[in-house]
């Protein structure tokens, strides 16, 4: 997730650096929100407090939603809020609280993979930035014109030009869903009992 | 300048509604519950049938000392009530109460997505409160809140998607504009699923397992006192207003009525639904945690999916 955030900010940088010496208010707002998002993302991965990290992730993901809004992609922005803020982060917090979420620092939260993770993040960010910059080099969104990211436009583009990738993605998600069901049912079938507490006892 | 004035005026009106309607619902709850249980309820504050009881309660809350437990995560503990309350204020901005541009705080293109998305964020407040209180009961309450939200968000979204399919738009005024009377029998399953799931998201009885007083005191809000506690209560009642208004707008035709269309119908239907919410509180026992999850996954989601299929079939048949 953090990979997306540098990409968003560099997109902002690319947009303002596109030749206009006097950036408009929206462009300034875009860059500022981008910087805030980047900051929140940075704190997310550096803070020593697990739940704080999840909450900073909320700020970062919300920042991206604001960026979408500023790019007039209203529909995508609300979907971002719905899926990431409303569901993914809640799931994350649920998982944290269910397992280990001490108040205060958790020194054992750091793993030795820090530098590898940094490398992966940088490479992913670089490739995303490269793709975005290369794809939208000369594109310019007319913010004063009719909305280009409205629900109607997004829907038409998605279900006319991008139907195949959309369907492929849904098959992928379905496969993941079935996989999750299979994984979660395995123990019950092997243990030969439907009693939930019983299987949990066996696992321990 | 005129535009700025217009926006400011609308926001002030929405804010006033946000402050007044939840209190009206709260006071109605006092009285309706009392009469359903064969007693009178608050009778002294303000003179006439204790109308000022909630104002008095508010004054009491404001006077109380604001305590943060020693072991708590201070900042998150203090921030949580705001996170719980603000989403409902934002949602209210997008809910249309009458025909035309004048009767909605702000027309939002993807209004349906906006309200559902922002309403989902409110639960983060309960989670933050549950975790930051450094109290086992609070943590359990927070966990139950999260589990409940994850279970009931899906049927709610599916039911709302059914209406969006029927209307062919995700704009809230657009949905009400497209409403016909026969949508009521057509979308009735979706309406019931939406309302039930909404009740569960608000943690209202009979879905109040996360705040079950006989087991975990008051769940995520156990450690709160004074104004911050009042804010959580206000969030609950604002949530009732928002849920009832949304059900009205999506499923009951908003401002359409048998005679003379207008905002009065929206308010009337919302009020009736709010009464039903209170009624349910006094008439149903609390669902157990497993019953609660079972209801969502084995009843509401299949029902919502069936409603979507029905909507699709009818939609194709009439077009």
Automatic annotation (TrEMBL), chain B:
It is found in: Cell membrane; Membrane. Keywords: Cell membrane, Membrane, NAD, Quinone, Translocase, Transmembrane, Transmembrane helix, Ubiquinone. Its EC number is 7.1.1.-. It holds the Pfam family NADHdh. The chain crosses the membrane at residues 7-26, 79-98, 110-133, 154-175, 181-200, 229-251, 263-283, 295-318. NDH-1 shuttles electrons from NADH, via FMN and iron-sulfur (Fe-S) centers, to quinones in the respiratory chain. The immediate electron acceptor for the enzyme in this species is believed to be ubiquinone. Couples the redox reaction to proton translocation (for every two electrons transferred, four hydrogen ions are translocated across the cytoplasmic membrane), and thus conserves the redox energy in a proton gradient. This subunit may bind ubiquinone. Belongs to the complex I subunit 1 family. This is NADH-quinone oxidoreductase subunit H. It comes from Streptomyces flavotricini. The lineage of its organism: Bacteria, Bacillati, Actinomycetota, Actinomycetes, Kitasatosporales. The gene is nuoH.
């Amino acid at each position: 997730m953090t990979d997306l955030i540098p990409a968003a900010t560099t997109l902002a940088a690319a947009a303002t650096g596109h030749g206009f010496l006097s950036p408009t208010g929206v462009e300034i707002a875009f860059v500022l929100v981008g910087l805030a998002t980047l900051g929140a993302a940075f704190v997310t991965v550096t803070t020593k407090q697990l739940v704080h990290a999840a909450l900073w992730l909320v700020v970062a993901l919300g920042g991206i939603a604001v960026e979408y809004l500023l790019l007039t992609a209203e529909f995508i922005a609300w979907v971002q809020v719905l899926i990431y803020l409303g569901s993914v982060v809640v799931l994350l917090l649920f998982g944290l609280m269910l397992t280990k979420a001490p108040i205060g620092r958790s020194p054992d939260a750091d793993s030795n993979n820090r530098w590898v993770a940094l490398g992966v993040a940088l490479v992913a960010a670089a490739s995303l930035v490269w793709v975005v910059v290369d794809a939208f080099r000369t594109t310019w969104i007319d913010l004063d014109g009719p909305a280009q990211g409205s629900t109607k436009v997004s829907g038409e583009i998605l279900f006319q030009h991008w139907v195949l990738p959309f369907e492929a993605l849904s098959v992928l998600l379905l496969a993941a869903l079935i996989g999750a069901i299979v994984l979660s049912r395995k123990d019950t079938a092997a243990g030969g009992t439907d009693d939930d507490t019983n299987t949990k006892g066996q696992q321990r | 300048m005129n535009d700025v004035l217009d926006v400011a005026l609308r926001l002030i009106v929405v804010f006033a509604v946000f402050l007044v309607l939840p209190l009206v619902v709260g006071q109605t709850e006092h009285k309706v519950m009392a009469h359903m249980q064969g007693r009178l309820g608050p009778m002294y504050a303000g003179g006439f049938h204790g109308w000022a009881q909630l104002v008095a309660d508010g004054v009491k809350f404001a006077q109380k000392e604001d305590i943060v437990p020693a072991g708590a995560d201070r900042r998150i503990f203090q921030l949580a009530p705001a996170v719980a309350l603000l989403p409902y204020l934002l949602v209210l901005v997008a809910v249309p109460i009458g025909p035309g541009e004048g009767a909605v705080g702000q027309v939002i293109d993807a209004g349906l997505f906006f309200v559902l998305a922002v309403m989902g964020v409110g639960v983060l407040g309960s989670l933050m409160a549950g975790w930051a209180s450094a109290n086992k009961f609070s943590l359990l309450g927070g966990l139950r809140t999260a589990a409940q939200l994850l279970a009931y968000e899906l049927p709610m979204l599916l039911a709302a998607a059914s209406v969006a399919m029927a209307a062919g738009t995700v704009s809230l005024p657009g949905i009400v504009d497209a409403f016909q009377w026969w949508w009521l029998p057509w979308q009735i399953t979706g309406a019931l699923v939406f309302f039930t799931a909404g009740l569960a998201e608000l943690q209202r009885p009979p879905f109040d397992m996360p705040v079950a007083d006989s087991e975990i005191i008051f769940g995520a809000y156990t450690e709160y006192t004074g104004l911050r506690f009042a804010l959580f209560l206000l969030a609950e009642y604002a949530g009732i207003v928002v849920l009832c208004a949304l059900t009205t707008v999506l499923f009951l035709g908003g401002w359409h009525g048998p005679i003379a269309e207008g905002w009065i119908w929206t308010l009337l239907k919302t009020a009736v639904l709010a009464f039903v919410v209170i009624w349910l509180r006094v008439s149903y026992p609390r669902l157990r945690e497993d019953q609660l999850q079972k209801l969502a996954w084995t009843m509401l989601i299949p029902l919502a999916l069936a409603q979507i299929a029905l909507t699709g079939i009818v939609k194709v048949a009439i077009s």
